[in-house]
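Quick one, tokens below:
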């Protein structure tokens, strides 16, 4: 009986202890959930089971395929994959495909603009690299040398031989830095510009080069810490933009045609045309008005080549004096209507400066010959027709005030509060949220480096941020070793691209349901923050991922930050595209529902038979 009483007391004590423990546990759980920190709890269990991402095996981010290291068979089939496209698609650009382009009108260069394939013509295969493809030379050597195997096109070496664009030497192309208007080299040409324009010192940071050739101007402006957005059409000057990007210089396939440029208003410190073949004197000044739209108040426009300098060069240009004189007169008239001040014309180079504000140009305000563009959102440019009208500037209180706000010189402007933020022009963002965003992305990038410690070492020269926000990812990485193409999806709730430019960075609008205006294999690293959540139900994830694969170099890296639901789907598709992938927890811990997916594109070429 004594033994029975002892056992009963023990069971009673144990029961009381268990009940007390459970009560305490559920009480604390309730307090925790009501505090707001427990919202990801149910998700965390699913994540840990699905992704097994508490331990992150190292991915190899080094390149393994130089000119002396090219295995015959570089990939093997372990899982069902997307099939490679035929070798003829090696340089495929879906929205600038030549056969489709030739079905469109030639007026205003419409046929050279973006014309993306309909759904039934999209390719669902992997674009192959050419046989013998190797990792590009590191910057700055890449500025001067490109492997022939990577861009096997020699036509420019013949067409532009005397203009010093590019020379073919052995197994490489050499770029001496020349151009149509500066055969003696871009350095001397830039020195000429710098005698008039404050190129050094950070006042001029962002530039636009229209009809850029192989982007030698942009390549050499980098020495002055000027970041140039260069563009040229995909035309008979074979692979000019491809060469630019292979050199490690920002560029995209584009043309000044019938559509507005994919930039907000008031973003470039300087715009440049060196014999770019754009008919500035035609279309009622429409092209000059588009340049005026994207130029910052007080910005500079440089025009060299015909008709500038016609008194000396008219015979070489095989045009009459009257024809060239008339063309320049019209350009001067349009510049006057825009209230641009001509500050120099010397040695075949003319330079104008844009007005600081509309108050300083009363004659333009009252001129009935000049149409004013309707006031719309500055981001309302995607597939929008260009018009012969002048874009109004933000209002000012005095003739000396810079419309929209004055910028700090670079690099101070990188982290200074942008005027668009300070003046409340960007809905949903304040000075405080801007500063918090900078701090947040510093943490994010530090977390990335724990997995990929090559992030800012120069291993990745050309970087794409697919959903750039305020540009804080690029700001953290800012370095002469790399540059970032900051893309703001045109479907984003708020346009932030103007802010990005005010920080001294570059980028453009885009719709990721379509192909980007670049050649295959032109980016070393792609960053995608919230892209797949943004495009949920807008288009297929396969379309976005296949486009990422197209523009990513072999052995290039990908960092995707998104919800766990999106990333689980993305990882399955990525594994079927010959990517090596790893899921990782948010730097805040496993209970945060946002996760990260790191990936590396495997090396394979058009002649490969199996997977490495």
């Amino acid at each position: 009986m004594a033994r029975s009483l002892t056992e009963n007391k023990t069971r009673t004590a144990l029961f009381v202890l268990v009940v007390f423990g459970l009560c305490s546990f559920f009480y604390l759980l309730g307090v925790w959930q009501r505090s707001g920190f427990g919202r990801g709890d149910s998700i965390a269990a699913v994540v840990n089971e699905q992704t097994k991402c508490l331990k992150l095996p190292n991915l190899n981010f080094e390149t393994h395929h130089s000119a002396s290291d090219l295995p015959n068979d570089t990939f093997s089939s372990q899982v069902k994959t997307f099939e490679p496209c035929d070798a003829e698609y090696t340089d495929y650009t879906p929205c600038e495909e030549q056969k489709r382009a030739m079905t469109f009108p030639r007026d205003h260069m419409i046929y050279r603009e973006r014309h993306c394939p309909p759904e039934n013509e999209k390719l669902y295969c992997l674009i192959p690299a050419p046989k013998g493809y190797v990792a590009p030379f590191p910057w700055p050597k890449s500025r001067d040398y490109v492997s022939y195997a990577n861009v096997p096109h020699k036509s420019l070496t013949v067409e532009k031989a005397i203009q010093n664009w590019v020379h073919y030497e052995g197994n490489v192309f050499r770029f001496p830095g020349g151009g149509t208007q500066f055969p003696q080299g871009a350095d001397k040409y830039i020195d000429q510009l710098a005698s008039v324009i404050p190129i050094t010192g950070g006042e001029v940071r962002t530039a636009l080069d229209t009809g850029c050739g192989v982007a030698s101007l942009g390549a050499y402006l980098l020495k002055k810490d000027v970041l140039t957005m260069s563009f040229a059409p995909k035309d008979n000057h074979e692979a000019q933009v491809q060469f630019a990007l292979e050199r490690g210089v920002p560029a995209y396939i584009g043309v000044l045609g019938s559509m507005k440029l994919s930039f907000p208003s008031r973003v470039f410190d300087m715009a440049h045309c060196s014999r770019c073949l754009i008919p500035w004197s035609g279309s009622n000044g429409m092209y000059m008005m588009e340049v005026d739209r994207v130029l910052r108040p007080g910005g500079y426009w440089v025009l060299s080549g015909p008709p500038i300098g016609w008194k000396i060069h008219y015979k070489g240009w095989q045009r009459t004096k009257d024809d060239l004189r008339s063309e320049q007169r019209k350009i001067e008239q349009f510049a006057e209507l825009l209230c641009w001040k001509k500050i120099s014309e010397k040695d075949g180079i003319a330079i104008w400066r844009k007005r600081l504000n509309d108050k300083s140009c009363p004659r333009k305000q009252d001129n009935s010959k000049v149409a004013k563009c309707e006031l719309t959102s500055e981001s309302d440019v995607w597939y929008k027709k260009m018009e012969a009208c002048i874009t109004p500037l933000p209002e000012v209180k005095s003739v000396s005030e810079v419309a929209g706000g004055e910028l700090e010189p670079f690099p101070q402007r990188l982290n200074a509060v942008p005027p668009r933020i300070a003046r409340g022009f960007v809905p949903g963002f304040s000075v405080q949220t801007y500063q918090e965003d900078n701090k947040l992305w510093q943490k994010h990038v530090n977390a990335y480096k724990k997995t990929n410690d090559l992030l800012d070492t120069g291993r990745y020269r050309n970087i794409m941020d697919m959903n750039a926000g305020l540009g804080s990812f690029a700001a953290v990485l800012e370095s002469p070793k790399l540059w970032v193409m900051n893309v703001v999806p045109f479907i984003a709730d708020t346009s932030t691209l103007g802010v990005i430019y005010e920080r001294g960075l570059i980028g453009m609008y885009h719709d990721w349901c379509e192909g980007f205006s670049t050649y295959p294999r032109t980016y070393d690293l792609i960053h995608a923050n919230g892209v797949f959540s943004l495009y949920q139900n807008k288009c297929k994830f396969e379309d976005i991922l296949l486009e990422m694969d197209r523009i990513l170099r072999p052995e290039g890296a990908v960092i995707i930050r998104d919800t766990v639901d999106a990333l689980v789907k993305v990882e399955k598709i990525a594994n079927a595209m010959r990517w090596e992938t790893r899921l990782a927890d948010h730097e805040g811990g496993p209970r945060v529902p946002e996760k990260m997916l790191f990936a590396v594109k495997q090396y394979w070429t058009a002649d490969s038979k199996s997977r490495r």
